[in-house]
Amino acid sequence: MANNSLISDKMNAALNEQIGNEMSASMQYIAIAAYFDSEDLLELARHFYRQSEEERTHALRFLKFVVDAGASVEMGALPQPQNRFNLAEEAIQKALDGEITVTRQINALVDMATRENDHITHNFLQWFVTEQLEEVSSTSTLLKIVQRAGESNLLMVEEYLVRNGRLGAEPEASST
Ligand code: FEO
Fold first, then answer.
1. Does a structural domain hold residue 74?
2. Cα(128) to centroid(ligand 1), Å
3. Distance 95 CA to ligand 1 centre (A)
4. Share of the chain above pLDDT 70, in %
């Protein structure tokens, strides 16, 4: 353990890995956004560019926690994202698979924090536990909408996104 660090070396390494995982998710979302952009599906593109930004803020949230805990940040290499998609459904399924993977990663971190009696990290991770429920749910909704519309009616999905605003956003009444 680094001097005065509040977390173990093992937890430090796992959190650094998660910084990379969140940056990978951000890269994958840019690739998905670029696909929709090139298909002139601008609302879908906008949705995924925004998701990419969100993932970057997740990475920075982990990074800041590592710094605040007195541990050391180490950035690793990122895997290449999938850049080619044949169908909108394929691109959104990729997004949903990614969110399910991140959910498992967050759960594994919570398990590690529990095993180590690391209440500080455990508490920090709760925000991500809630966030993953929202992200899996909103991506799964988007997938169902695309499946219902069908590949030849993606303009209906675009209209849906315009009408309903940001998928997964907090309902007005509860955003205080
Ligand atoms: Fe940061 Fe969408 O997981």
1. yes
2. 8
3. 10
4. 92
What's this model's pTM, rounded to 2 decimal places? 0.92
Residue nearest to atom 2 of ligand 1 (CA): 99
**Which CATH number covers residue 32?**
1.20.1260.10
pLDDT at 2 over 50: no
Q: What is the pLDDT at residue 171? A: 56
* 136 part of a folded domain: yes
pLDDT digits (tens, 9 = 90+) for 75-106: 999 999 999 999 999 999 999 999 999 999 99
Residue 173 lies in a domain: no
Which atom number of ligand 1 is nearest to the Cα of residue 135? 2
CA–centroid distance, 132 to ligand 1, in Å, is 6
Measuring from each residue's beta carbon to the nearest atom of ligand 1, which residues come in under 6 Å? 22, 25, 55, 58, 99, 102, 135
Q: How many CA atoms lie within 13 A of 174 on its CB side?
A: 4
Q: Number of structural domains, the chain?
A: 1
Distance 131 CA to ligand 1 centre (A): 7
Residue 57 lies in a domain: yes
Whose C-alpha lies nearest to ligand 1, atom 1? 55
Measured in Å, residue 6 CA sits from the centre of ligand 1 at 25
26 has pLDDT over 90: yes
CA–CA separation, 104 and 98 (whole Å): 10
**C-alpha neighbours within 13 Å on the C-beta side of residue 91:** 26
Mean of the per-residue pLDDT values of the chain: 94
Surface-to-core class of residue 4, CB atoms within 10 Å of its CB (0-12 exposed, 13-18 middle, 19+ buried): exposed
> Rg (Cα) of the chain, in Å, rounded?
18
